[in-house]
Amino acid sequence: MMRSIYLVARRDYLGYVQAWGFWLGLLLTPVLMGVGMMAPSWAAASQPTRYYTVIEDGNAFAEVLRSELDKEREQVARMTLDPLAVMNNETSEAIETFDAALDEGASVEVALERAGGSTVDLPQSDFIYVEPPARTSEALQPYLLGERSIETPNGPQTLFAAIFVPEGDGEIEYWSENITAQSLRGKVQAAEQTLTERRVFEEAGVSPRILNEAENRARTVSEKRARPPSAAGAGAQVTLADRAPFFAAVMMAFLLWFLIFSVVNYLLMGTIEERSNKIFDSLLTSVKLPHMLAGKLLAVLAVALTLMAVWAIGAAVVVNMFSSAMPADMRETLFTVISAVARPSLLVPAVLSFVLGYLMYGAVFLALGSLCDTIQEAQTLMTPLIVLLMVPMFMIVVAINDAESPILSVMSWVPVFTPFLLILRVPAGPPLWEVAGLLVLMIAATLLVLWLAARVYRAGAVHGAGVGDVGKWFAKALPGKKG
Amino acid sequence: MTSSVPLEMQGVTKRFGFFTAVRDLSFTVPQGSIVGFLGPNGAGKSTGLRMALGVLSPDEGEARLFGAPPNINSLRRVGFLPEERGLYKKMSPRAIISYFARLKGMSAPDSRKRADELLEAMGLAEFGRSRISKLSKGMAQKVQILSSLAHGPEFLILDEPFSGLDPVNQQGLEDLIIEEHKRGATILFSTHVMEHAERLCDSIVMMARGRKVFDGTLDEAYGALGRAVLIGVSDGFDLDTALAPKGFTQNEKQGDTWRVSLPQGQDAQDALRAAINAGAPITSFRPEEARLRDVFVSLVSEAEAADLDESLKADTIAEVI
């Protein structure tokens, strides 16, 4: 028995990995994932530096606007100084020095240097203030339209925007030729909000010093986690190690979804090839049908594991290359995170969900393939399945925001969604009876699907049933529609 | 329990919905024989063979392979070439032959060695590592035949093995079947080309419209058609009128020659003697050579007539009801 399963799995596996599509997926997936992850920062980096000016009496508005524009860079600077503290919602000596320098009016660059950081990692500001080349809108028009240039440290440039801040209650005017890039206009609005608050407080007799002190004295919210006495040693503070299982669960659920959507397609295509090439009779006189199906499912699982193993080894090599540059406390945190994820109470249900989910959907794809002569026919049957598979994707989004959402609890009892949703729920620590119940449900549902898939496969492979027969089977299954 | 009889079909019937593909089929393939499974297209040959192999389950009756219902162990002793040819197009002939041989229980090194030997013997050695998709249809068909017999089966079941092959390759396949038979294999093959059966078979099973219409040796098949002599006469002599009183009542004029059917107990000499005695101006005389094709046409026509009668009767009953 094992020999037959092995031989079928081996042949199918070698067939898949020898196809150029496999290598394309192997190499392109990490590249595309990397591109996807880096895209926002690349987009930000690729944004051209733009120049603006503020026409006002004095420089109060320009100062506040510059401060608003620097907020994102300040956060980047804090990450540069101590990423673990930022991720764990904590503070550190370096961050406190940096914040103190900012409070004293230092620029982000100066504050970062004072705290011992390097400004090399700091992105350049997207918007740079220049002294107004003229003071009326008419006179500034040629600069805004690019007919005339302004002098900047980077040479002559076009003026992107001019902000007119009148004295008194007059309307602030934001002038620009570009009406699609709205981020500067948003910052102008935020700066006006800050200034107005200050003015109102001053009018009420509150000095800027007191206002500043009030802002600084606002207490930070420290997130604590209630833990059973057995886990009291971990401390109450919520850290990255607490969140790691939730991130890991989301990743695993997404991986299962990705596997079903991409790799399991091999099953469909492989079966269509066997049907269209009329190989079934030769196979069925050499191997028992259940062994053949088991071999096919194993082959695709092995393809998926190969992909994951190669990616994991690749990631390990990359991490290893940079590990010498990794601070000791970060390595320790990495170890803590891995320990938090690699707990049997998390891993056993998650791995079972992963395997059963794969078997459930893999068997369905096999059965569908056995009914189709062409890819076009398969697409007809695939459409409802794809719509069905979008639900777990939405649920992953729900779980990112709230892993204990009642909708996840309810939907996890729908057998076709259980594999995904149990993975997502496990880090939140659902009751043991519920985990056991969901596992039993999932095993029963998988066995039922495998049994049904074997029947459909036999109908397709032996009796030549096709896509058109699916409708007849449903009609037969309806009450009172026998025959 | 195992038996030395490779195949026994006992009252096997298979229906697909309202259509009966095979009706009450019984026959035996004795060990060491070459049996032809003959019939026109749609006669139920492939369905019968698929039941013999356990790919399809009979609705009634039983198929026994080496004394037991077909199972994976008895199937390992069988080599099967299906009617619908198909191979993995991206695999090489060597890999495919080795794969199917291993599925039938051969070790990996033995299967590869055997694949090389067979490809060499069939003149396909230089294509052993090419993709199937690069081969001609005839070459691919040869590869499939080789993959069915690579594991040295005791019993070979070939469904329409000659279809799609050119005359040279058909002859090659006939030689291969004879070689396999000499090796000790029992062979059952289906065909609708009678000449192959005449050259190769010890016995034949004929099918028409899902029914068995004949089961026996070739001699018995010729006997079933009835013997005749061909007597040439001159001057438009009416041989039928001359011979009828002497017991030769079924005579057919074919130009200047009469085909005289021999009644039970009479032989060719009796017919010749009767014609001379009747004063017939005989110009030629020869016993008719029976051809399997004629037997086949005759039996199939009878079966179709019987089937037509049966359906007419069924319609009449239905109308009465």
Describe this structure in words.
- The complex is a heterodimer of chains A (483) and B (321).
- Chain A has 21 helices and 6 strands.
- With 483 residues, chain A is mainly alpha-helical.
- Chain A folds into 2 domains: 268 residues, no CATH class; 162 residues, no CATH class.
- In chain A, the strands form 2 sheets. Chain A has a 4-stranded mixed beta sheet with strand order 2-1-5-6, with helices on both faces. A two-stranded antiparallel ribbon of chain A has the order 3-4.
- In chain A, a hairpin with a 2-residue loop joins β3 and β4.
- The mean pLDDT of chain A is 83.
- Chain B is of the alpha/beta class.
- Chain B has 2 domains: 216 residues, Rossmann fold; 61 residues, 2-Layer Sandwich (Alpha-Beta Plaits), CATH 3.30.70.
- In chain B, β11 and β12 form a beta hairpin.
- The chains are: A mainly alpha (483), B alpha/beta (321).
- The interface between A and B is medium-sized, with 22 and 27 residues.
By DSSP (H or I, 4+ residues per run), the number of helices of chain B equals 11
Q: Give, in spatial order, the strands making up the sheet with the most strands of chain B.
A: 5-6-7-3-8-9
Instruction: Write the H/E string of chain A, N to C.
Output: HHEHHHHHEHEEEEHHHHHHHHHHHHH
The share of residues in extended strands of chain A comes to: under 5%
Global Rg of chain B: 24 Å
The first-to-last residue Cα distance of chain A is: 37 Å
Task: State the low-pLDDT regions of chain A, or none.
Answer: none
CATH class of the largest domain in chain B: Alpha Beta
Q: What structural class results from the helix and strand content of chain B?
A: alpha/beta
How many domains of chain B? 2
What is the mean predicted local confidence, pLDDT of chain A? 83
Q: Sketch the topology of chain B as an H/E string, one letter per element.
A: EEEHEHEHHHEHEHEEHEHEEHEH
